[in-house]
Design goal:
Elements lengths: L1 H18 L2 H11 L9 H17 L2 H5 L6 H10 L1 H21 L9 H42 L1 H11 L1 H9 L5 H27 L4
Helix pairs in contact: 1-3, 1-5, 3-6, 3-7, 5-10, 7-8, 7-10, 8-9
Length: 212
């Protein structure tokens, strides 16, 4: 477990300079699109993941890490465990943005907890597709994969509405929070967990057999 902690810490050291970029991002987005502030939960988390993986490839960190007395599965596991602090960071930034907007009168409604939760869930879904591609394509395909996923992030509003069309129970739960629509959302959450775990197994298999 200590190895995982240090590997996650390594990722945050790599991306620490990028954290400052989120200050102008939230200021601009909060001023122009405050009515859709829940969507800001997705972008920082995904961007941290993409940037951390990209820096690993550019700096040949993977080649160094596999030379250490660590299993490759542990390296992959650390990447997936890092999704949690990434999500928490985005969640915290969104709450700070909401609190600031509420203080100056830009919003007057309670926090949209259910929408924020679904955006966090959407982040884990995107990460489940991104990480296997990252390990499979490596340095040659990193730029292409990053471009595709950045475009997906920029289109997150329409993607979110499309998700609600696919899962109308989730939309009903957002608007009413009724108990009868809670079970499908719970199943959706369990499905996301299964997807993340399956993605981890696939990434571990790809990385374990990869020549670095």
């Amino acid at each position: 477990m200590s190895n995982t902690f240090h590997l996650i810490r390594k990722d945050f050291v790599l991306i620490q300079k990028m954290l400052l970029l989120f200050i102008p991002y939230y200021l601009i987005m909060g001023y122009t699109l405050m009515d859709q502030y829940t969507m800001f939960t997705l972008f920082p988390a995904m961007l941290l993941l993409v940037n951390g993986c990209t820096l690993d490839v550019q700096q040949n960190n993977q080649r160094f890490l596999v030379s250490l007395p660590l299993k490759r599965q542990d390296l992959v596991k650390a990447k997936y465990m890092a999704l949690v602090p990434y999500a928490l960071f985005s969640f915290g930034c969104t709450l700070v943005l909401y609190a600031a907007a509420y203080a100056i009168g830009r919003v007057d409604t309670p926090p949209a907890w259910r929408e924020i939760a679904l955006m966090l869930l959407f982040f884990f879904v995107l990460a489940s597709f991104y990480l296997p591609l990252h390990y499979w394509l490596g340095q040659k395909g990193t730029q292409i994969v990053n471009f595709i996923f950045i475009m997906l992030i920029m289109l997150n509003v329409s993607a979110f509405h499309q998700l609600l069309e696919w899962f109308p129970a989730a939309g009903k739960w957002i608007s009413t929070g009724s108990a009868e629509s809670f079970l499908p959302v719970l199943l959706l959450t369990l499905g996301c967990m299964i997807l993340v775990y399956s993605s981890y197994l696939l990434s571990s298999r790809i990385f374990s057999s990869k020549d670095i």
